[in-house]
Amino acid sequence: MKVTEHIAKAKQTLFSIEVLPPLKGQTINSIYETMDRLMPYNPAFVDVTYHRQEVIYREAEKGLMKRHVVRKRPGTVGICASLMNRYNIDTVPHIICGGFSKDETEDALIDLNFVGIENVLVLRGDPAKTEGIFKPEPDGHAYASDLLQQVVDMNNGSYLDPELKDTNKTDFCIGVAGYPEKHYEAPNFKSDLKYLKKKVDLGAEYIVTQLFYDNKKFFQFVEDCRKAGIEVPIIPGLKPITSQKQLSRVPHFFHVDFPDELVDRIEACKTNEDVKRVGVEWCIQQSEELIEAGVPVLHYYTMGKATSIAQVAEAVFGK
Ligand code: FAD
Questions:
Q1: What does the pLDDT look like over 125-163, one tens digit per residue?
Q2: Residue to probe by mutation, ligand 1, list 50, 123, 181, most atoms within 8 Å of CB
């Protein structure tokens, strides 16, 4: 079922999660463990992230460096198929511009369609670690809106080869990313909102937000979106803090601020167990306030760790 159908049918706020593929060389069991912990809370769908390949240089003979292209977390499509089969759950694979030509994207979308996947979250992807700014492939997409247009075209039966006749129309429900605290590259919030609206005008049917710790910023974002004429469902993304280190890592990687009260409470913790408890309490508070405000879904980023999210889900959805 599509994410939008889940939302339309729901009588109350839904629970959903995001998982990330295991590191190359590991088994899929860590994902099954996460799912086994969280399935009792009845997630409506599960997102599976996509990780672009990276270029790394390893020392070779005679002091030379050899270039290697590695994908550290492959397996998004296989994980989606496996989760659908094992848990009878709808999956939302992420698809990205980075590292993909348009032809490769088309083939990936055909795979997803044949596997029976009905949803995609369309993203640009971050720059490769070796590049400061995002560089599209020579025949790839520069922005999520361009990739989105390709998915919309396939939904209309239009493939890259104009000579293809009587083509299958795919029917993907398309989600996109939104940033309550602004995307870090956008010159200002107004500009970011303009491009978010462009994605919706092109056919995005719902928005999932970057994680945030201050609900006021989410409420303001929703208000600004509505004023700009963005009417699709906006799904808040949440992640409980689980260690003191995340006080600097989360702002660094996700470009979001922590509220003063949360920083004070985490800084006062003596152990990581205390931090986890504060993180769970804060996330429960955020979740309850968001439910009260009538959000359609609460989407939790597991990032490979299910324990805190299971505690939040037990408090919020386990009643
Ligand atoms: P875009 O919508 O393309 O926007 C990127 C920037 O360009 C913004 O600053 C925007 O304002 C600007 N912009 C957009 N269109 C134009 C235009 N036409 N002209 C000029 N400027 C423009 N990354 C991954 O690699 N894999 C994942 O699985 C993944 N999952 C994510 C899930 C969620 C819910 C979120 C919020 C992020 C995720 N990311 C993931 C990270 C995401 O790829 C990065 O945040 C990336 O830097 C931006 O992606 P986007 O889709 O928002 O890009």
A1: 988 888 889 999 999 999 999 999 999 999 999 999 999
A2: 123
Stated pTM of the model: 0.97
Task: Report which protein residue has its CA nearest ligand 1's atom 24.
Answer: 125
The DSSP annotation for 111-128 comes to HHHHHT--EEEEE--PPP
314 alpha carbon to ligand 1 midpoint, in Å? 32
Structural domain spans, the chain: 3-317
- pLDDT tens for residues 301-315? 999 889 999 999 999
- Atom of ligand 1 at shortest range from CA of 127: 47
Ligand 1 atom 36: residue of nearest CA: 210
- What's the CA gap between 170 and 309, in Å, rounded? 34
Indicate the Cα dihedral angle 263, 266, 267, 272, nearest 10°: -150
Tell the CATH topology of 3-317.
Answer: TIM Barrel (3.20.20)
